[in-house]
């Protein structure tokens, strides 16, 4: 009888242990969050690197699964992607949206389902969800100040005339790029003339035509802020068409150009002493991805409020990649660190 009793007790112990282990495993599975991670265009190398790092980092730090949603550079696709969040059994989302008004109903539906919603780059209308942003204003100011200083040193008798090419009606572009850049120039040259932001939302070809038309009429323009790398391709093509776009022995002759979204193509131009593209904003995909994941997880873990009257903004590093202030090997290493995942 005793042996039977011990056997029964042993079996009961195994059963109890199995139940505990199974319960623990179930709890672990349930604790693994599922995150929707939006990128505006997965064909862009910055967003490719962001997506790769978001998946790796979320799994390693939080045990979370990340699902990438490609906006395909189409605001309608981005809006459709938002509508899938509430229906897709997600615990949270980090959105990248171009048309906030169109996306708002989907955001509100997800919030009603207690899904942690955050945004990247732009707050989404009056939803009040937290927003992750790169510290673009600091870099834009720095680039403007550097360009003004170098232009004045090389051409003391030629007053500064600046222009920006981008999205003049976009609030975050204006606050992060256009205005701080002009302020940086004016901090060095208070009498500089600012022609303001011209609408280059049509892309590369639009930027090229703007430059050709503008400089044909106003060749005295000498500081140009091209507010995205695709626009810079058009900007430099327009300058080349006009016989401009060049430095002489590392010194500006006709203009200095700044860009955004530093990449391997811009690396070659910035460190070419004969090219007038000399500074660019380095947006780090790895650090940006980690910041976005941390933010949505902070909302899930109730460290950050899911909504507020005015969207809370959380800023992450951006970098000044400059012919004058960042040695070429450092820029090369920066590229390797950020885009080799």
The CATH architecture assignment of the largest domain turns out to be 3-Layer(aba) Sandwich
Poorly predicted ranges? 1-30
Tell me, rounded to a whole number, the average pLDDT.
90
User: How many distinct folded domains?
Assistant: 2
Tell me how many strands there are: 14
CATH fold label of the largest domain: Rossmann fold
Q: Overall 3D geometry?
A: elongated
State the strand order across the main sheet. Answer: 2-1-3-4-5-13
Number of helices: 11
The CATH superfamily of the largest domain turns out to be Response regulator
Helix content: 40-55%
Name the beta content range: 15-25%
Main sheet: strands, sense, barrel: 6 strands, parallel
The helix/strand series, from N terminus to C terminus, equals HEHEHEHEEHEHEHEHEEEHEHEEH
CATH uppermost class of the largest domain: Alpha Beta
List keywords for this structure.
single chain; 341 residues; alpha/beta; Rossmann fold; 2 domains; six-stranded parallel sheet; disordered N terminus
How would you explain this protein's 3D organization?
The chain has 341 residues and is of the alpha/beta class. The chain has 2 domains: 131 residues, Response regulator (Rossmann fold); 168 residues, 3-Layer(aba) Sandwich (Rossmann fold), CATH 3.40.50. The protein contains 11 helices and 14 strands. It has a 6-stranded parallel beta sheet with strand order 2-1-3-4-5-13. A 6-stranded mixed beta sheet has the order 7-6-8-11-12-14. Strand 1, helix 2 and strand 2 form a beta-alpha-beta unit. It is elongated, with a radius of gyration of 25 Å. The termini are far apart.
């Amino acid at each position: 009888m005793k042996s039977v009793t011990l056997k029964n007790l042993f079996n009961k112990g195994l059963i109890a242990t199995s139940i505990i282990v199974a319960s623990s495993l179930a709890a672990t599975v349930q604790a693994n969050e599922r995150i929707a991670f939006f990128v505006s265009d997965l064909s862009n190398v910055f967003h490719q690197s962001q997506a790769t790092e978001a998946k790796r980092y979320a799994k390693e730090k939080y045990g979370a699964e990340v699902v990438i949603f490609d906006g395909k550079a189409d605001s309608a696709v981005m809006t459709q992607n938002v509508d899938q969040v509430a229906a897709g059994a997600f615990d949270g989302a980090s959105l990248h949206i171009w048309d906030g008004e169109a996306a708002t109903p989907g955001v509100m539906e997800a919030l009603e389902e207690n899904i942690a919603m955050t945004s990247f780059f732009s707050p989404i209308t009056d939803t009040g969800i937290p927003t992750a942003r790169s510290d673009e204003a600091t870099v834009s100011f720095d680039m403007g100040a550097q360009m003004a200083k170098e232009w004045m040193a090389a051409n003391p008798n030629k007053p500064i005339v600046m222009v920006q090419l981008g999205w003049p009606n976009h609030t975050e572009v204006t606050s992060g790029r256009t205005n701080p850049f002009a302020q940086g120039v004016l901090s060095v040259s208070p009498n500089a003339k600012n022609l303001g932001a011209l609408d280059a939302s049509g892309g590369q070809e639009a930027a090229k035509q703007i430059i050709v038309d503008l400089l044909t009429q106003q060749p005295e323009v000498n500081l140009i802020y091209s507010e995205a790398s695709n626009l810079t391709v058009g900007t430099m093509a327009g300058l080349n068409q006009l016989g401009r776009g060049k430095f002489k022995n590392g010194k500006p002759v006709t203009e200095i150009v700044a860009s955004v979204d530093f990449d391997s193509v811009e690396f070659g131009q910035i460190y070419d002493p004969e090219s007038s593209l000399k500074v660019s904003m380095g947006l780090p995909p790895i650090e940006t991805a980690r910041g976005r994941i941390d933010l949505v997880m902070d909302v899930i873990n109730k460290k950050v409020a899911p909504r507020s009257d005015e969207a809370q903004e959380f800023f992450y590093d951006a970098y000044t990649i400059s012919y004058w202030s960042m040695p070429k090997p450092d820029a090369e290493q920066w590229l390797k660190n950020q885009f080799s995942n």
